[in-house]
């Protein structure tokens, strides 16, 4: 299948890329990581531009373009969690400029004479420590919980610009009944696709930096990019990225059209992105040589964003197993 963006989508991609280049340069990421700078002004830029309003399923491809570019820029804001995890589970609560996170498992709900009570621990919750609201998935339905009702502890992860937290629900009392009319499965498909797109963007950034390096790095009087072994590695990276990108955008299309293939497509996108980052991580470091291991090199931020994407919501092996199970089911 040949997938290409139309002229309006290419214009949208260029616009998003220009904004991220101006508002989210590597110097900002380094300032956040090294000095604890606040990413809130950047979040307000996204909100002011209307990027947080891309919640209509029909706009899923446009959202996908933003997610890929933000992955490429190592976005330090809660955009990914808010738009692909919280908003699908809390469509009425999602407001422009309001950040959210989703807790998919680990929390139970029971009802007493005074209402609903939540207990448990949500682990590896993306942006769980800085979200304004939480969408909590339980067997009884989906609850909306204010951040000040829970205890959230940020846990260290490989990517220092990314927030991942454990969220503790100790007898949290919520008002109102849970939402039982939401398509939680579809929401999870969007979450998987969002992480896949972010990973693809980060991998593209690694390749861009590597290509720039091998064009300018001289050895024996010539650019190392003229060496066949270097060209083969760069080509393998490009092919892996294009494959993962195509699957991620196909998943976005199935979600936009509510195509029943979205379950399989999102799993394929997540698996392909995980496999892609493994190859890109290894080859990107090797093309840079010892420079790639240094803190001063901006390559590290893209590498770390790509690697963490593999571990959020299940790795490539888990999703390959799901794909195999789906395939076997069609043979019965």
UniProtKB/TrEMBL annotation:
<feature type="domain" description="Acyl-CoA dehydrogenase/oxidase C-terminal">
    <location>
        <begin position="194"/>
        <end position="326"/>
    </location>
</feature>
<dbReference type="Pfam" id="PF00441">
    <property type="entry name" value="Acyl-CoA_dh_1"/>
</dbReference>
<protein>
    <submittedName>
        <fullName>Acyl-CoA dehydrogenase family protein</fullName>
    </submittedName>
</protein>
<keyword id="KW-0274">FAD</keyword>
<dbReference type="InterPro" id="IPR009100">
    <property type="entry name" value="AcylCoA_DH/oxidase_NM_dom_sf"/>
</dbReference>
<dbReference type="InterPro" id="IPR037069">
    <property type="entry name" value="AcylCoA_DH/ox_N_sf"/>
</dbReference>
<keyword id="KW-0560">Oxidoreductase</keyword>
<dbReference type="InterPro" id="IPR036250">
    <property type="entry name" value="AcylCo_DH-like_C"/>
</dbReference>
<comment type="similarity">
    <text>Belongs to the acyl-CoA dehydrogenase family.</text>
</comment>
<keyword id="KW-0285">Flavoprotein</keyword>
<dbReference type="InterPro" id="IPR009075">
    <property type="entry name" value="AcylCo_DH/oxidase_C"/>
</dbReference>
């Amino acid at each position: 299948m040949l997938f290409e963006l139309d002229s309006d989508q290419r214009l949208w991609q260029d616009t998003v890329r220009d904004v991220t280049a101006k508002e989210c340069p590597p110097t900002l990421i380094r300032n956040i990581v090294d000095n604890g700078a606040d990413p809130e002004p950047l979040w307000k830029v996204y909100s002011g531009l209307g990027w947080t309003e891309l919640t209509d399923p029909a706009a899923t491809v446009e959202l996908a373009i933003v997610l890929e570019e933000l992955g490429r820029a190592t976005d330090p804001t809660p955009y990914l969690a808010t738009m692909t995890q919280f908003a699908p589970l809390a469509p009425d609560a999602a407001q422009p400029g309001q950040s959210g996170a989703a807790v998919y498992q680990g929390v139970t709900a029971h009802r007493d004479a005074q209402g609903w009570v939540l207990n448990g621990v949500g682990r590896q919750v993306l942006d769980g420590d800085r979200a304004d609201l939480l969408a909590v998935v339980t067997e009884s339905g989906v609850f909306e919980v204010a951040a000040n009702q829970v205890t959230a502890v940020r846990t260290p992860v490989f990517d220092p610009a990314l927030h991942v937290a454990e969220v503790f629900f100790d007898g949290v009392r919520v008002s109102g009944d849970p939402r039982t009319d939401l398509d939680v499965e579809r929401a999870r498909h969007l979450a998987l696709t969002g992480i896949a797109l972010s990973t693809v963007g980060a991998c593209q950034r690694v390749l861009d930096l590597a290509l720039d390096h091998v064009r300018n790095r001289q050895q024996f009087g010539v650019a190392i990019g003229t060496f066949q072994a270097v060209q083969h590695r760069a080509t393998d990276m490009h092919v892996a990225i294009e494959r993962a990108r195509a699957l991620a955008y196909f998943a976005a299309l199935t979600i936009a059209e509510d195509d029943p293939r979205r379950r399989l497509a999102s799993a394929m996108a997540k698996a392909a992105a995980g496999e892609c980052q493994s190859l890109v991580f290894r080859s990107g470091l090797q093309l840079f040589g010892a420079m790639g291991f240094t803190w001063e090199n901006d390559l590290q931020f893209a590498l770390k964003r790509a690697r963490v994407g593999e571990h959020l919501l299940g790795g490539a092996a888990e999703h390959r197993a799901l794909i195999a199970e789906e395939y076997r089911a069609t043979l019965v």
